[in-house]
Amino acid sequence: MKNFSDQLHDYGFSTEVRVRLSETDAVGVVFFGTYAHYFDIGRMDYLAHLGLNKLDGAVRDLIPGLVVGQEAQFKSSARYNDVLTIFVRIATIGKTSYTFHVKVVNKRTRATVANGSLTLVWMDDKQRPIRVPEHVREVVREFEGDALHE
Amino acid sequence: MKNFSDQLHDYGFSTEVRVRLSETDAVGVVFFGTYAHYFDIGRMDYLAHLGLNKLDGAVRDLIPGLVVGQEAQFKSSARYNDVLTIFVRIATIGKTSYTFHVKVVNKRTRATVANGSLTLVWMDDKQRPIRVPEHVREVVREFEGDALHE
Amino acid sequence: MKNFSDQLHDYGFSTEVRVRLSETDAVGVVFFGTYAHYFDIGRMDYLAHLGLNKLDGAVRDLIPGLVVGQEAQFKSSARYNDVLTIFVRIATIGKTSYTFHVKVVNKRTRATVANGSLTLVWMDDKQRPIRVPEHVREVVREFEGDALHE
Amino acid sequence: MKNFSDQLHDYGFSTEVRVRLSETDAVGVVFFGTYAHYFDIGRMDYLAHLGLNKLDGAVRDLIPGLVVGQEAQFKSSARYNDVLTIFVRIATIGKTSYTFHVKVVNKRTRATVANGSLTLVWMDDKQRPIRVPEHVREVVREFEGDALHE
To answer: How far apart are CA C2 and CA B71, in angstroms?
Structure first.
């Protein structure tokens, strides 16, 4: 499992969600499966922030790549109506894949709720892996700076 | 609101779900919004049972019409791991619309959990309402018999 | 089905959601069952706005009453990343029940996406219907004014 | 990331889900976040199969431990109405934690759809990690045999 030693200052982007009642379960806290949804919100908002999705395009065009891996480590519980800050960065761009790191923090208490990652593979129209395009690398390099591993 | 006096013998089709932990909320029972999902499972399984969806087609083709109305009345609570029987019928076919009645029953206790309806409008490729096709009416008439209102 | 002739000026409260990718379905638009979740967000935020939930209490205490009815009419489709404004009012307080009206509007286009209602029954600790407490009626009367039906 | 070289014959238990329309997204395939829900169904059904949850107890009692880690690798896409077999095993029991391996397979095509794991920590009433009880270890040992790592 990856070592999420990332500090908050490693993250140049964040977005927020507020926990919905339907996202909790009968145990009284946020269902762990909900975090995959939060991670995805973080990913999509990050890409929009960098201009890497096209909001007037078809949804199919909005999604650069296919999710091939996901992991999460849960550090503390979140409850109904908590505001969670989702910090997002692209930590690595390989040949055909790239990886987001995500850190979910309780906005009020500052407690880390979850750390995680999403790995995607860039695909052509026939769902074959292809090299992450150069213009995407440039935009991400510009935003992430030296913290980006290539 | 419609009068759901429908008795169980009015229903010629049923399918089942088992309540998932993620479908309950922090109050400890099934979140009311989950029932719209259960109704939809009932609808899709009913259509498949009558051969009115094409499992090898595109998803877009699977969906005869657009949901324009939904209602539900909640009679008792359901809990994690309960098996629910979803009874489904098409009660009415109008000119361009048709309406499902749905009754959700706790399989073990036989208690009615929810009654509801879904109304759809048949659409052409440009999302304009058109008459429900005759072959669909015939299949539904055959299945529902005299209970069908046209 | 109720007549949702309510105009926007009837609504004294609104909150917002932004459509998540996971809330759309394979047809490409927001899954109709998602609206029950949006309605619930509207309800809970409305109650919080009027001070009628206690954020430091147990979740069980946060929920004044049990949802016994829900209906929705869908007027136009919403898509990924659309910002939706959820207008909420309490339209009626009966002896033991009360009813929210909800109107979901596309923030950018101003198109009405859905109208709906949620009806709840006030319960005592043993889940028996009891009269909606007077202090709740007063707070809602104060906020809704003459538009409230009692 | 763990090496999921597990073969199917390593798994002594499986359960099934059928993909719901609401679990797909606008891209047309199962939303990756849905798999956390499928994993959880696998986990809960496995525990029930071994008699390690008590269906007549409070939900809080049903959940032996808190999920502290989750990971998934996605191998192929699943679509609406696909039947998925969820193979589940407990692969490791540590001092206070235990780990499920999960393999999701398309029932018809036999294609692997996803591999993953869930790690939980056993907690006392005050949410402090404690040793996994001996009777639980025994039941799991009995079922998993030599494949179990302790």
So the answer is: 11
